[in-house]
Amino acid sequence: MLENLTAQPQDKILMLIEMFKADPRADKIDLGVGVYKNADGVTPVMHAIKTAEAQLWREETTKSYTGLAGDPGFSDAMRDLILGESVDAARVAAAATPGGTGAVRQALELIKFHTPDATIWLSNPTWPNHPSIVRHLGLNMAEYRYFDSESRGVDFDGMMADLARVKAGDVVLLHGCCHNPTGANLTLPEWQIVADHLVAIGAMPMIDIAYQGFGDGLAQDAAGTRLIAKCCPETLIAASCSKNFGIYRERTGLLMAVSPTIAAKPTVQGTLNHLNRQNFSFPPDHGARLVTMILTDKDLRADWQAELKSMRDGMIHLREQLARELRQRTGSDRFGFIAQHRGMFSRLGATPEQVELLRKDHGIYMVGDSRMNIAGLNATTVPILAQAIADVGV
Ligand code: LMR
After folding, report:
1. Phi-psi region at 357: left, alpha or beta (left = phi > 0; alpha = psi -120 to 50)
2. Which atom of ligand 1 is found nearest the CA of 32?
């Protein structure tokens, strides 16, 4: 059997990592994979994580299993972080997962288990792993317009025109904040229009929130998710702790299912537990425990929030610097969108040929659709990037 396997397409983001590593140029710049880096190009272990790890090492007495849904303390702390007071906690079933991708996978497994004929609506563009997992599970898929390649903002009219075709029982996948790959995000009034539409047609929202705290602030970045959860009778939310806690390799995520009623929750919870059991049994706990310690301890939480804020402010500053440098070099305001976008990514709007030139002639690596990881820049590389963008004629 194994000799008959066919090669699978490589993930274009992960492929870039290998290409970058293999490039011998000392001045190459990596704007590929979505990993936060500080000005020295390092992805740091956050201070609060280090403190929590030291404390955990001293205090942890067992590494026996938690539960199929992980530690309920983790679910509670994350639910509060993401949903705040927007819904009655008694309606929210939750299960820890291996990373945010694990949460996306389990949400789609739940849909497949319960309503295999539903169509999953994805933004065009979206994170490539979304369509890949949907396809892998054999679910139906459709796209809604999202990005306006002229303004580099959200094509909201196009989005709503496409969402008009969504049917009752379909699932609409939305990015909670910091849209990946574009960096263009819905305003709160737009979230409201989407929520009202989904309620009116009886479709289910599924939110992928992987960058809370990387945009405008913890509460601000969760505002759209909270609004949807409040307005819609049921919502699936896949959350990641990889970025905002900097614990990528610990694989820490959570799937939340906001049930229509309190009475429905136990069965929903049981189903999430069952699906975890089928796929990986117990979820990993180390990262989840650190996150729980940080979120439930006043000092650790303040420390984490301060560091997260400085990361966020740094990215906004880099955006403003890049937009400024591009204005100077091109004599036009057409790159102003970079300062408006939020999160780690911006879609530059370069052609695949220009992306290739940036890589070949300038050693600058970005994803082929011209997604740049802003956190891969620093004050020294911003002018270099700006000049290169101007040179290749974007
Ligand atoms: C990204 O979009 O670059 C990250 O989410 C990393 C990944 O797994 O693709």
Report:
1. alpha
2. 3
Chain segment 80-98, per-residue pLDDT in tens:
999 999 999 999 999 999 9
Q: Which of 253, 269, 296 marks a domain boundary?
A: 296
pTM higher than the cut 0.90: yes
Residue 266 neighbours by CB under 8 Å, 6+ apart: none
Return the pLDDT at 11.
86
Q: How many CB atoms lie within 10 A of CB 256?
A: 26
213 near 205, Cβ under 8 Å? no
225 and 317 assigned to the same domain: no
Ligand 1, atom 1: nearest CA belongs to which residue? 34
Residue 139, pLDDT > 90, answer: yes
Whether residues 189 and 325 fall in one domain: no
390 noted as active-site residue: no
pLDDT, tens digit, for every residue of 295-349? 999 999 999 999 999 999 999 999 999 999 999 999 999 999 999 999 999 999 9
Question: Do 383 and 240 belong together in one domain?
Answer: no
Pocket of ligand 1 contains residue 127 by CB under 6 Å? yes
CA angle 3, 9, 13 (to 5 degrees): 140
Say what the pLDDT of residue 335 is.
Answer: 96
Residue 1 lies in a domain: no
318 and 288 assigned to the same domain: no
Does ligand 1 lie within 6 Å of residue 366's CB atom?
no
279: nearest Cα among 132, 108, 118:
108
In terms of domains, do 106 and 211 share one?
Answer: yes
Could you tell me the residue range of the domain that residue 376 belongs to?
Answer: 11-45+301-392
Given the CA of residue 181, which atom of ligand 1 is nearest to it? 2
How many domains is the chain partitioned into structurally? 2
Q: Which of 296, 325, 340 is the last residue before a domain boundary?
A: 296
Interval between CA 108 and ligand 1 midpoint (Å)? 18
| 56 domain-assigned | no
